[in-house]
Amino acid sequence: MAEMIFKGYKKKVVGAVRVPGDKSISHRAVIFGAIAHGETKIEGFLTGDDCLSTLSCMRQLGAEVERDGETVMVKGSGFNGLKEPENVLDVGNSGTSIRLLMGLLSARPFHSVLVGDASIHRRPMDRIMAPLEKMGGQLFGRANNRLAPVAINGTKLEAVTYNSPIASAQVKSALLLAAIQTEGQTTINEPYLSRDHTERMIRAFGGEIKTSKASCSLNGPQKLTGTTIKVPGDISSAAFFIAAALITPGSELKIESVGVNPTRTGLLDVLKDMGADISVNNPRELNNEPVADLVIRHSQLKSTTVGGEMIPKLIDEIPILALLATQAEGETVIRDAAELKVKETNRIQTVTTQLNKLGADIRETEDGMIITGHPGQPLTGGKVESFGDHRIGMMLAIAGQVAKQGVTLEGSEAISVSFPSFVKLLETVR
Ligand SMILES: O=C(O)C1=C[C@@H](OP(=O)(O)O)[C@@H](O)[C@H](O)C1
Ligand SMILES: C=C(OP(=O)(O)O)C(=O)O
To answer: What are the domain boundaries of the chain?
Structure first.
């Protein structure tokens, strides 16, 4: 396990950065490129481990994929261009890969097996398997069809209406990837709208999908056409730099070309409420996705309460929000976030235990946490662990900005799952 020391105490964060491409969009761009007809060019592809897992699975499925740094060329010949893989498909640490591929492969006429790392084999897969079975899918998993590895006997499916009990873009996207190959109209209703990158990408590839509030429906089968996808910067990666600037006195940071899709900007909405000085400039669009430049200045934050429909809009940013709340005046309450328990780690537990080790004041609850902020009072610092979770690792690295004795992070290699250039980029602005 790699160990790194982060000594950022009082080191102000200044200058301009671009963060790597959006992880959700990068996964989807390779998958859609492979099932479309013709050439797709992806610019700004995220070269984190998770997206490279998707890329290599698609190659094993017969897709022609060439990568040169952050540029990926995909030659697709439609769904029928995919072939039975000769070996198991390994998604590594990536929940998005395994779940989206389950949807795609359940409607292909061949056998496939999806495996991943220890974390993937603990995370629930029945949320995808159960609705796909309603469509006639044949999927088999460990622990009574709950866990990976998952074996799939691809078959012809039937269109359904599915009322999802959770707001999950992975559930929605898996079903859309099955539905787009299936005769008839499939409708998916969510309790709250989850990130809508799949819906936007279907349109970018010339497909049709109806969307209204937290519902979407499409008529299959559809033929998609290759296109150019320019991937915006990932707001979930930008979040760590936003936090570093906000909590370090004297900071002023510009982050250029960040995706600001409203289903992803919950952190910006909540931070505005907490009194953060963040401006969103030069709004524009890249292939149906809103993009902007952000300017962040050090701010004295106040506490807030976050729950309900806001949670899916900032689900991956809750670890870094918890760190920000340790520096805010008052008690911040995060609730309705039980989904955090089934991410790469149980993030309610890892955030609470690791930040408390650094001197924070956080209480774990059934579906979130309560964070008592002590503005002006630095964290102490010490030795903490990522437990193989990239977002926990980066959040703890940023905690070094307010930890007097610095932060020693074990398991720092996890960071490369979504942000391989994180440490280098952080050095350029401090
Ligand atoms: O669809 C996606 O790209 C993602 C959806 C979210 O997961 P859920 O669908 O489980 O909420 C998110 O946490 C994950 O990082 C990426
Ligand atoms: C939860 C995450 O990803 P995934 O579900 O794709 O593993 C994440 O990136 O925080």
So the answer is: 3-21+233-428, 23-230
Of all protein residues, whose CA lies closest to atom 8 belonging to ligand 2? 316
Residue nearest to atom 5 of ligand 2 (CA): 95
- Cα of 388 to ligand 2 centre, how many Å? 12
For residue 221 the two structure tokens come to: 């089968």
How far is the centre of ligand 2, averaged over its atoms, from the C-alpha of 145 (Å)? 21
For domain 23-230, the question of CATH label 3.30.200.20 is answered with no
Our answer on whether the CB atom of 315 is closer than 6 Å to any ligand 1 atom is yes
pLDDT at 376 over 90: no
The token duo for 309 is 């429909």
Give the pair of three-digit tokens for residue 345: 């780690």
382: enclosing H helix or E strand: strand 382-385
Residues 6+ apart with CB under 8 A from 190: 164, 166, 167, 168, 172, 214, 215
> What confidence tens digit (pLDDT) does each residue in 111-144 have?
999 999 999 999 999 999 999 999 999 999 999 9
How many angstroms separate the CA atoms of 313 and 193, rounded? 8
Q: Which residues are catalytic?
A: 316
Is the fold of 3-21+233-428 the same as that of 23-230? yes
- Does any ligand 2 atom lie closer than 6 A to the CB of residue 418? yes
For atom 15 of ligand 1, the residue with the nearest CA is 316
For residue 317, the 8-state DSSP code is: G
CA distance 271 to 303: 10
Per-residue pLDDT reduced to its tens digit, 176-205: 999 999 999 999 999 999 999 999 999 999
Query: Does 170 count as an annotated binding residue?
Result: yes
In terms of C-beta density within 10 A (0-12 exposed, 13-18 middle, 19 or more buried), how is residue 279 classed? Answer: exposed
Between CA 283 and CA 239 the distance in angstroms is 18
Q: Is 196 in the pocket of ligand 1 (CB under 6 A)?
A: no
The SS3 assignment for 249 reads coil
The pair phi, psi for residue 247, each rounded to 5°, is -95, -5
DSSP track, 50-87: HHHHHHHHHHHTT-EEEEETTEEEEEEE-GGG----SS
Binding site membership of 416 for ligand 1 (Cβ less than 6 Å): no
Residue 343 in marked binding region: yes
- 367: phi > 0 → left, psi -120 to 50 → alpha, else beta; which? alpha
Q: Is the CB of 316 under 6 A from ligand 2?
A: yes
Q: Which amino acid is located at 136 in the chain?
A: G
From atom 13 of ligand 1, which residue's Cα is the shortest distance away?
316
CATH fold of the domain at 3-21+233-428: UDP-n-acetylglucosamine1-carboxyvinyl-transferase; Chain (3.65.10)
**What is the pTM for the complete model shown?**
0.99
